[in-house]
Amino acid sequence: MIYLDANATTPVDPAVLEAMLPFLREHYANPSASYAAGRRVRRAIEQARAEVASLLGARTGEITFTSGGTESINAVHASVRDLWPEKPELIITGTEHAAVLESARRWQVQGGQVVTAPVHADGRVDLAALRSLLRPGTTALVSIMWANNETGVLAPMHEIVALAHAAGALVHTDAVQAVGKIHLDVKATPVDFLSLSGHKMHAPKGIGALYISQRARFTPLLVGGGQETERRSGTENVPGIVALGKAAELARQHLENGTKARIKALRDRFEHLVHAALPEMHIHGCPAHRLCTTSSFCLPGVDAAGMLILLDQAGIACSAGSACHTGALHASPALEAMGVSAREAACTLRFSFSRFNAKPDAEAAAHAVINAAHKLHEAQGSELAVLAH
Q1: What pLDDT digit, counting tens, does each position of 347-358 carry?
Q2: Are 125 and 155 in contact (CB under 8 A)?
Q3: For this structure, is 324 an active site residue?
Q4: Which pLDDT tens digit goes with each residue over 328-369?
Q5: What does the pLDDT look like over 201-231, one tens digit per residue?
Q6: Which of 286, 292, 324, 347 is catalytic?
Q7: Residues β-bridged to residue 64
Q8: 178: which residues sit within 8 A by CB, 6+ positions away?
Q9: Contact, 155 vs 146, CB < 8 A?
Q10: Kind and range of the H or E run holding 133
């Protein structure tokens, strides 16, 4: 299999697996225990916290471990809603992940107001519209993803933060797709909350983190034993936390050693080959502000569902929209918000690369796309000929 669905999940890095295994085998003590074995596990947790903080340019005390991006997002929304009831408004965009969209619906059900800021056709947030929607004294939170999971489009987060803070609103960003793929610095771009997930950066599923700025107040979603400085109770997932720490360390190294440029070259080579053979191909998202890992494109008249079957048979793993929607094919909210028609969305595929891909993967995938598209065109032509006859 050639795996090109890294925005859905990533393979666990062997070094990450090696780092976590001792905490599944011999270092199993409860980190809250006062004896030596417990203290050793506690030190491992704090080392992982330091690695995640370093990746984000944060302080160690600003990192809380969670089960993943969805929990982190829900925790922020619930906390802000509880702490600022006099500010009932949440602003999101239509291109958000389902975790934000569904949490926003809950915000609304519980009596709050949700405002959807528009995006341009290239997926970038309309800053002028956002400025007009912000209401001092009413807007509590702006929750906008840093990098889109379907198109890879990057938000102008620095400008978003400046606008929101000027209106007295807090800022949360779903950075699940951005962390480890671009350089992030929460001091240079002073978001108040940031969510991340381990399995999008070569750690296992079921572990994530939430950055909570020391400037921000926070009330926990989960209460109990008071772990994670009372921000997220429950005995810690130590193997997962250690794995996330190692993944963060490796991500920082790869951001500094040219891996990003190598992945971009793979993605660009893939797109060039497909476009040369299928010039009708149309890429979704702003070319200048897009993750180097992500390629979302439409092949007009070519059914994405049929393409997925043929590509799977050819050993290529990719997706037709967000994989978090359990395999259901439909026009995604993100593409709809960008003005993409239902017909175009039905002809859209997403390929997402990681550092474990190489040039032969990109070239084999491109040829598989081209061959599959030709097969579908031929099949459609044969059907039309039969109908005409």
Answers
A1: 999 999 999 999
A2: yes
A3: yes
A4: 556 789 999 999 999 999 999 999 999 999 999 999 999 999
A5: 999 999 999 999 999 999 999 999 999 999 9
A6: 324
A7: 210
A8: 145, 146, 147, 154, 184, 291
A9: yes
A10: helix 127-133
